[in-house]
Design a protein that fits this description.
single chain, alpha+beta, Elongation Factor Tu (Ef-tu), domain 3, Alpha-Beta Plaits, 5 domains, six-stranded mixed beta sheet, elongated, ribosome binding, guanosine tetraphosphate binding, protein biosynthesis, GTP binding, hydrolase
Amino acid sequence: MTTVPISNIRNFSIVAHIDHGKSTLADRLIQMTGGLSDREMAGKEQVLDSMDIERERGITIKAQTVRLSYRAKDGKDYIFNLMDTPGHVDFAYEVSRSLAACEGSLLVVDASQGVEAQTLANVYQALDNNHEIVPVLNKVDLPAAEPEKIKQQIEDVIGIDASDAVMISAKTGLGVPDVLEAIVTRLPPPKGDRNATLKALLVDSWYDVYLGVVVLIRVVDGVMKKGSRVRMMGTGAAYDVERVGFFTPKMQQVDELGPGEIGFITAAIKEVADTRVGDTITDDRKPVTEMLPGFKPAIPVVFCGLFPVDADDFETLRGAMGKLRLNDASFSFEMETSAALGFGFRCGFLGLLHLEIIQERLSREFDLNLIATAPSVIYKMKLTDGTEIEIHNPVDMPDVVKIAEIQEPWIEATIMTPDEYLGSVLKLCQDRRGSQKELTYVGSRAMVKYDLPLNEVVFDFYDRLKSVSKGYASFDYHLTDYKPADLVKMQILVNNEPVDALSMLVHRTRAEGRGRAMVEKMKELIPPHMFQIPIQAAIGGKVIARETVRALRKDVTAKCYGGDITRKRKLLEKQKEGKKKMRQFGKVDIPQEAFIAALKVDS
């Protein structure tokens, strides 16, 4: 393998909104540079989306990297390191670390749909990383494509020059050779000193059954050699490098990686937790003094409890979560118990899609049947004794008299929607206690910025947004800060016993509505017993909503015929006494389906 000078290396990522054709463009680039033969590509769309779940949903979850060789029109050989990134807001941190390893980005915009909320978020991230950006208009072969209009839109909304945007159709391959030339001529080469001490950025890591932990790195200075001893500066651990190589997307081994190159190393590392994403890798004998600026760690935003439907599956679930954690450092969990649901785990996720993906992977890859409790967020509580605590499970909330102030997280949401749905989108945000920050127009599309409490968003905001806009609105958000809020803990009591799995923190103004919806739902779901069952929603000692499940009754007066009314009354009184006694000592069996359905209650 001949070494290519650093001036002939190009590291770039593809950024775009969901469904604008990133992974398809990546396929074409791999095909046209001969990364995979046509036979290997045959019958496989989105080569880089390796998980079944990515293929089925047509989304990218893990950022992937590929090294391509290209001979340009100037007759020189170039090396391209391409990073395919996810477009979805929950995986934004995957995007941020891919961008940190590159110098440039291809901004892919659908020529029929235009700029979307996520396009903006990802472009701003690329600009934060000082990227050179080449706009690419995809799907220009569609009848609905309006390239000139979209170019103008890119300039208006994002503020980058789009006059020489590359026009392509990633599906048919039209215009893709121009993209390859644009990468050579318009993106900058990496900088780095071959003779300096080794300094490399840890971009990603995942677990391989045969090789242990595979670490994806971007070499900044120096040379990463096979057999050398390296140190992770964040954790202080040292390892001997066993393999060095890159992906074409197949693994190819080489002896060394020079400055500006992206590749992988393996070093008999057992746990992915030992390789912190964003860490700096250096030579163990003469380490560098300054670490590279890492990435912000992925902070869980949404929490929920996961419990096995069958209690015997608990150990399987523990093992499965450990394995998923190996490949997804952003997923965190700790054990918890619940009187209603038994043993399970409290898990932290980056967002609702992340939660859904993890849940689906658990049930699919490990054949587990799970119940998830209502998603909640982290609340900060200032106590009367001056201490501050964080709470992500409503059950752990301290006594009300000890709390001085409760703060909840707020987000800034950017929503882009066609004009005709603007009214219903604004109403939805208002209903969720949002406050509008700005409203601008881009052609016939409105772009609104709202401050919203995250608590209102995690429940079902995304689904509601899609339904009120018939699927046309796009949504992106980031956490801003914590603000004081008038929150109360609402409990659901069944036969005067609190059910911990159903308790939640809600805003005082919304408590009654949410409580009423919950008890009505539970009334339908709990089967009748031999005694009547009151179902109540309560805040502290105050009941705010109630429904009653009627008792099953036997007609005890059936054998009474004729005679005085007092005989019947005596039998009914006797039955009433029995029912009262049963209600005191009877246990209510709440079926598991009732929990699952009640937690899905739509506000």
